[in-house]
Amino acid sequence: xxxxxxxxxxIADGNDEFIVEMLEMFIDKTPEYFFEIKKSLGExxxxxxxxxxxxxxxxxxxxxxxxxxPLIVEIERNAVEIRNPESLNELIVELxxxxxxxxxxxxxxRDKLKTN
Length: 116
Prior knowledge:
Number of strands: 0
Number of domains: 1
Distance between the termini: 22 Å
CATH architecture: Up-down Bundle
CATH superfamily: HPT domain
Order of helices and strands: HHHHH
Number of helices: 5
CATH class: Mainly Alpha
């Protein structure tokens, strides 16, 4: 399990419609960030990688994807220091894989809420 929706449930205060809206936003928008990050890596645009990665950081926290935090921090640090493009690519792929699995969980949770 990659997600923990405790925080989202707490701030939603029983509002399932709000939860569904937040889940759908993450499910729809996050792949767009990865497209931007991978495109930027191909262009060696490290500042854009850092910027796009920084944008997704709060959404991962919001969805309780705590295992992503160290990866995001490392991607940002690697992009700033421009240390190793191959290593950066591996980190991005690892984060994207984790995100895909989290999105699958979130879609199941969203679908349950929509049928209730």
